[in-house]
Specification:
Elements (H helix, E strand, L loop, with lengths): L2 H13 L5 H12 L5 H7 L6 H30 L21 H15 L3 E2 L5 E3 H4 L11 H4 L11 E3 L5 H9 L4 E10 L11 E11 L4 H16 L4 E8 L2 E11 L2 E11 L1 H6 L8 E8 H9 L12 H4 L7
Parallel strand pairs: 1-4
Antiparallel strand pairs: 2-3, 4-5, 5-9, 6-7, 7-8, 8-9
Helix pairs in contact: 1-4, 2-4, 5-11
The structure holds 3,4-dihydroxyphenylalanine.
The site of 3,4-dihydroxyphenylalanine has 11 residues, from strand 8 and strand 9.
């Protein structure tokens, strides 16, 4: 593969501006198609390249592959959200099209990061029953940690409640799917909290878990390190021993940010009791899990001082996020 070919492909990627998903698909097949994609073919025949050149060419081709995938990802998002069809030349009284909410921006960013390392996103219900939210997660009725997670119960059936954490998706998913599983979900959770600058009765959480044979704490550390690095551009973190009923051992992760250690997430190795509760044999499988608060992460990233600002619907606040999604 010569320089000319490389710069030709680079230019083609750069100038490619698809309007439809079909165009985007043609582009994907041309370069990454399984049978005769240009990049696929080069990688397939890479063993024919003399060994001294292989490393350099391999890197160039893999970089091109990344650029192509990025192009596909971004354009898919734009086409699906009709972003390319917004007429930027309209002047005068064009409607103010608004901006994405900071919580959605962070949520999208996390979805992007976790999808890249093989986690699948699933939706999850906000109304849960006692078993999914507490008991199956090793939080029986007498457990003191229930006090910290008091919530809103449904009047006509107090077995149902607004979930206190997204960790309940572990139970929902594991009950139906045998390992290996690499899953995450993001959504609203509810607590009986006094509303103040740093706590609210409703907030958003992300929960992720991975179950397979031989999943270890070092797998968990590496994954979290990667995520923090992707979010903040650098990763200075520490794991502090902690306690959660559904993980053993458990830890809390702090990030060093703006000259401060900030607690950012809880994590651990899924307790064998939880696996047994969903008929997964802990002798064969192990898993890790972690959960983080989206509001808190957004507070750090955007230097927001009061958590209530998110839901005041003040247009001056929201306008600051124009252009991000
Ligand atoms: N569910 C916990 C909370 O709401 C957060 C959490 C801690 C999730 C540890 C996890 C975990 O998956 O392993 O505070």
């Amino acid at each position: 593969m010569c320089d000319k070919e490389i710069s030709k492909i680079k230019k083609e990627i750069e100038h490619f501006k698809p309007k439809t998903l079909e165009e985007l698909n043609k582009f994907r097949i041309k370069f990454l198609g399984k049978k005769s994609g240009i990049i696929t073919n080069i990688l397939k025949n890479i063993h024919e390249i003399p060994i001294y050149k292989r490393k350099i060419i391999g890197k160039i081709v893999n970089d091109l592959k990344k650029d192509i995938k990025k192009k596909i990802y971004e354009n898919k998002f734009n086409i699906n959200n009709n972003i390319n069809n917004v007429d930027l030349t309209i002047t005068g009284n064009s409607p103010n099209i608004g901006s994405a909410h900071p919580i959605s921006i962070i949520k999208n960013r996390i979805i992007h990061i976790l999808s890249q390392i093989g986690f699948n996103y699933i939706n999850s219900p906000e109304i849960e029953d006692d078993w999914h939210n507490f008991t199956a997660l090793n939080i029986p009725i007498w457990h003191p940690s229930r006090d910290m997670q008091d919530t809103f119960f449904l009047c006509n059936n107090s077995n149902f409640l607004l979930r206190t954490h997204t960790t309940s998706i572990q139970i929902r998913y594991m009950k139906k799917h045998k390992p290996p599983s690499r899953i995450f979900s993001i959504g609203k959770v509810y607590r009986n909290e006094t509303v103040s600058s740093h706590s609210n009765f409703m907030f958003h959480q992300m929960e992720a878990f991975y179950i397979d044979k031989y999943v270890s704490f070092s797998n968990l550390k590496k994954t979290i390190n990667y995520i923090i690095l992707s979010i903040f551009g650098k990763s200075i973190i520490r794991f502090r021993p902690s306690y959660f009923p559904f993980t053993e051992p458990s830890a809390e992760v702090d990030v060093y940010y703006n000259n401060n250690w900030m607690e950012i997430m809880g994590c651990g190795i899924i307790d064998p009791i939880v696996l047994k509760n969903v008929d997964i044999d802990p002798e064969f499988y192990s898993g890790f899990a972690f959960g983080l608060g989206i509001e808190r992460l957004a507070l750090m990233i955007y230097k927001i001082k009061d958590i209530r600002t998110y839901f005041d619907n003040d247009i001056r606040f929201l306008n600051q996020f124009k252009g991000e999604f």
